[in-house]
Amino acid sequence: MAELPSLLLASLNPSTRKQAEQNLQTLSIQPGFLTHLLTLVLQSSQDRAVRLAASVYLKNLVKSRWEDDEPPVPAADRAALREALVPAMIQLSNPSDKAVRAQVAESISLIAKVDFPEQWPDLVDKLVLSLSESNFEINIGILETAHSIFRPWRAEARSDALFTVINYVLSRFTRPFLQLFLHTSSLLFSSPPPANLAQVAQAMVFLVDIFYDLTCQDLPPDIEDAHAQFFGPEDGLFLKLLMWDPPELRGDPDDTTPSLPSQIKTRILEIVELYVKLYPETLQASASVEAFVRAIWELIGGGKRPSVADDGLVSQSLRFIASAIRTGYYKQLFSSKDTISGLVQGVVVPNVSLREHELEQFEDDPLEYIRLDLALPSMGGLGVSNDAVTRRQAAAEVLRALVSSGLEAETTEVTGAWIGQGLNEYNANKAENWRAKDTAIYLLTAVATRGSTTQHGVTSTNALIDVVQFFSDHVFQDLQADPGSIHPILQVDAIRFLYTFRNQLVKPQLLSVLPSLVRHLSSDNYVCYTYAAISIERILFIRQGNQLMFSQADIKDIAPQMLDALFAKIEKAPTPEKVAENDYLMKCAMRVIITARSGLADGYERLLQRLVTILGVISKNPSNPNFDQYIFESISALMRFVVQANPSTLPTFEQALFGPFTIILQQDIDQYIPYVFQILAQMLDLHSGDVPPEYRSLLPFLLTPASWTQKGSIPGLVKLLKAFLARDAPAMVAAGQLTQVLGVVQQRLIPSKINDGWGFELLQAVVQYVPSATVKQYFKSIIVTLLTRMQTSKTDKYVYHFVYFLGFCLAIGKDDITPDYIVGEVESIQAQLWSQILANFVIPQSPKMPPKDRKVVVVGLTRLLTQSSLMLRPPLAQAWPPTFQALVKLFKEEQLLTKKDDEDPDAGITQIDYEEQTAGYQAAYSRLAAAEAPPVDPMAHIKDLRAFLGQELSGLVRRNPEAKQWIAATDASVTGPFVQGLAAAGYNI
């Protein structure tokens, strides 16, 4: 372990990262590693970079291995780490350790999510015991720990399990928490203020955070009893804290980080907004909301607090006002025209106008400007909440709340006057007053929008505003203007207007503006060409019912020009990081390829070459997971549609891709390997004849243990191995490779709670494609492996996969792998084992199978009940009636058992939308929609399941008349109507 610091430092250097990570991986499975790592984090004499890297590695290990059993964290190590974490947070209370402390807090949160309270019953007691009336350095560490444990409740769905945990915490934590809150606030308000005022204020930030955590699901009795103390309209603590502004803690006006008082105020307003939404009756008992609205007016009215550091506070203030308006409980507060006019003039217009900060961002950090302006998920997929994130969006939200609360006419009239004023100012002096028009367009967009989603733009509009007319009169001219003739922000406004109201324009109107957008792709302005790409991508994604509005024919002529402009922008970036920075361009290219389909077949070689070249550049330093997803999706989609139109093009794709893919595999570029496996599987699937030798030479590499260490690669590997098994199973058996496949399944996939599903998928491919005689050599050991895992760590997901696998084996009807063979093999492991499997797993799970799996299970159970002689003889015959009853329950929703034949095989790919994607690197799996083949129905030859069961059952009754008694032994209320229906259809049962 002595080399651990140097390995951690080496893992930060791109040139030594790969080897260092492999060495760390080897070390990490040694007993005691996690506590050793934590000790290193706590060594104040150690290099800061080492300590931070150690804390991040600790968090990542906990994230990837705590819940999964592959490789397992020994029980002793788990207990030792749990024991050490709270003292560690106390030790890291110093402000200089803030970054490290945040990582350790995240580790605690991850462990608590799995282990608390069952395996960690004393966690909260330890936290409470560590709280201090005087040592706020320690309090900060403890409160941050508590917040990291409770914070996930905010996003969780209500459930009995969740409330059991919450109640466990409340019974131990609420009273000491409230005592500390009151004590801390008294220190903040004391005169003179305490010497450690900043520390006490930092503790208050966490206390307010925890107040939100404890009330986010339900109102705890102790907090409800103290309601007036916190929310009182005269002297409630929250109102006093909103007004509290000690000179000592005011930040520098140019500082962009919120001051501690600003953070406290923002979080208090989050709590008040939560109460407005969840507990309105509690607030209405007094004039609290009115008092908070007055306080907000004092805080931010008339354009106060213009600094960037207060953006969060101003935005949250406006969000609270919007939420209060939307509830409808405070109509009398907001409904007069004077109030609306005051709101628009006092808080909306000042916060919609662009500040110098935004203009600097537009020039110097255009990607951040775009992300914030459109509230799009950020680079790296971290995502932005759906709430308004900028002042402008929060101000617009106030207008939308007024419009949607029945105050449409008044709000439109008041805002309309401001819009008219802005347009007049602009027309009086276009060069100087362009900001007035920008404000006017933003106000119009806000007041015209009734409902919207990130994915589809505006879905309903204010009936009093003609959006299309406003576009024609005031916006279209800016869209058409030559670059340089107007301020670039007005051109961006015009593109954004189109983006926002794309659903309000009809197809001919959109087709008429598409050439203008394509022209803007070649703009010199970063924001302008990026907005054009975003707008084109979203316009091509517009759906009418189940159909996309734009078809291949609509963009066939313009698609090459679009792709050329997009690739030109991507290619001119100077470094790999810069090439991959703007994923909006790559996403647009992907959408154009998916929409144009085989329309790109004519010049596809040039497109393919450009994609491969871009891939070659970014693979030198992968830096943006979204960009990676879109470029591989583009390659996969181009191949899918071009080869579909002309199968003879497949070798061209293989020649272009095999070289780069080989480099990616050889250099172990782990971010790209999952994609490579999926596209290799896609290419192999496109071959109709024998497997070409260059694919076969990959197999030994695919079956090495090293290939299976990265979790993200496993789905792609399984897909690729399934493609090999489907085409080349006899050759794999002859080469001894089936044993290796089963070794991977039995040793690596089935034991893992995360990857067991992929193990079952591979097993199904083995049963389906490998010659029966070979399958029979291994079948018993496979069942033993599956049952061993069932005994050691059963999960609901595992039971589902296990039952589906048995159903699949029974249904496949392959040579001599008959129901009797399967039952006999299980019984040979242990007498009566099959009855136990039926009673404990198959009978309870079958009726719960999801629709996509029901057909296989119906066919499997039908074959079991009608074709297995062992099921018809004692002792197994006792299980026949309950199994039949489970089978009948699967017919309850019969429409789910039939598949429409007219479904578009490419439907899945046209729906690709990563708008909500939140996966960064080391995501569980980055699926390529374009590489997915339409799901194959292994029971396609059986068209009518009811008729199939009817025929098989009547055949059974003919051969074994006593089967009628077994049917009669079932619950008639479940099976009676079904059996009568079969009889009425002519089946003799």
Structure description:
- There is one protein chain.
- With 989 residues, the chain is mostly helical.
- The protein contains 51 helices and four strands.
- The strands form two sheets. Strands 1-2 form a two-stranded antiparallel sheet. The chain has a two-stranded antiparallel sheet with strand order 3-4.
- Strand 3 and strand 4 form a beta hairpin.
- The model is unreliable at 377-388, 899-903 and 914-924 (pLDDT under 50).
CA-CA gap between termini? 72 Å
Helix content: 55-70%
Main β-sheet description: 2 strands, antiparallel
Strand line-up in the sheet with most strands: 1-2
Radius of gyration: 32 Å
How would you sum up the global shape?
Answer: globular
The parts where pLDDT drops under 50 for at least 5 residues are 377-388, 899-903, 914-924
